[in-house]
Amino acid sequence: MMGRFAEGLVPPYFAVIFANQLRDPAPGYEAMAERMAALAETMPGYLGVESTRDAEGFGLTVSYWESEAAIAHWKKQSDHLAAQDTGMREWYARYHLRVARIERAYAGPDGRPALT
Amino acid sequence: MMGRFAEGLVPPYFAVIFANQLRDPAPGYEAMAERMAALAETMPGYLGVESTRDAEGFGLTVSYWESEAAIAHWKKQSDHLAAQDTGMREWYARYHLRVARIERAYAGPDGRPALT
């Protein structure tokens, strides 16, 4: 269960909030998503990810990064660019992508700051 | 489908990224979540929400706000305080809450800025 959370991050840091509605079907999506998640972990400045999707195919993935430069670098990674292109053409009926700066954070249920 | 997305927001604005793992069972959670979502919509500075949860009970809810003051006001709203208290005691096995400033945003699959 703990593995679903990005733990131990100290603000400020940055996030990419990716909300998306998958098409049905979305052939090849699962395999690509796994490859991209594994690839993101190898990128400079990657801090972690939280991701979930419901039975209707609506998903939210929030990835965390040390800097906006790290996000820009990941966006331009070549395999990732190819996945983005296929995603826009074949997998996503709609998406919103937002880049954010995390100002403060808490974890619980104990309510302490999420610094440990 | 469009109703799942927070549309037409112009950066900068603010977000609360709430990642959470529900206990199983979590009695009363669904009704509370619906009441809180309806209440949030009535709060000053509320801009929208994106939310999803998988079959394992791992959820992400991102609510969007005009200002950090609006977020602070919502956090202290009395019915919401009661829900937070019950949530910490009864519903959430674990959560992370992060407050972020949205710097820029895009929507697709057409790739245009998410300003329309």
UniProtKB/TrEMBL annotation, chains A, B:
Residues 30-85 form the ABM domain. InterPro entries: ABM_dom (IPR007138), Dimeric_a/b-barrel (IPR011008), Jasmonate_Hydroxylase-like (IPR052936). It comes from the Bacteria. SUPFAM superfamilies: Dimeric alpha+beta barrel. This is ABM domain-containing protein. It comes from Aquisalinus flavus.
